[in-house]
Write a structure and sequence with these properties.
- This protein is α/β, with parallel strands linked by helices.
- Helix content is 38%, strand content 17%.
- The protein has ten helices and nine strands.
- A hairpin with a 5-residue loop joins strand 8 and strand 9.
- Helix 1 runs antiparallel to helix 9 and helix 2 packs parallel to helix 4.
- The radius of gyration is 28 Å and the shape is elongated.
- The two termini are 49 Å apart.
Amino acid sequence: MLLSLFGVLALSVTLGIAFTDTSPFFMFSTSELLTENPKIAPASIVQNTVATQLWRCPSDTYIVVTQPGVYAEDYSDQYAAPHLRRKISGEDGRIRSTMSVMDVLGEVDTEMIERVVKKQCGAALLRVDASTGSFTIADDPKPRIIHVDFPTLPSASKERASKLKENDVFLSSILDLLPTSKYTVIYTTTPSSTHQSSAIVEPEMYEMDSSFSSSQSHMGIKRDFSSVHNKRADDSGNVTLPDAPLFEKYQYFTPGIFMGILIMLPLFLILYVGVSAVGSLQVSYAAFEREMGPQTAKKGQ
């Protein structure tokens, strides 16, 4: 019975550790988008949902944010990212649609989302390095993608909250300087373990397109454009990943099935402990025998 109890405790700890490899995802837009807010979802489902919604070019500016080294707990403090919280919570009247997934399994492919917008909307890509603290925004009506790379948060809790707030202010300043009121923000994150494993990969840097730089007001920032890749998509708006692994192309487990399995495992162990406890009860056979002592004989007389 003690072994069974230890098994239940071990499973509970395992389930808690399993969600340390997840990170949140946020999206908000001034346009009407058909979005959902599941508690947990695979990264492939999230990115395909976003790409399908952006297929019809609902905005003029698309801001793709990457924030490595964070967890959902980092955003639980209301002072950590107040501007982002205001957008997602609906306090900003300009925001007409939001999407938030607190636990994303895997890493959202932002390059695939950017390829969809670049091909369908003819948008130019501008990369912004938040570590420089400055940026430049073109003052023209052309569709654009602004890719913002935030640095990894430090390990200390106080420093993490302070750095996350700085990044939130930086993103808010970009939104304030946009020349258009129609924008969509795709805010992606990765946990610390994922970022460390992919930190050795250096991003490819490209020089800015001359036709796009002619109408910009410079504020001192280095920018680059990523190359245009091909993607596969049918006329119905469904996006597929041509070179992705099998489990990235197709969805075998929905979030509901996954959460149901996680809930059933501890319930079965609890049932096993209960049945084992009832089965271990032992009663002596002497308890059912009639007492034949002297006192019993006197009572019979």
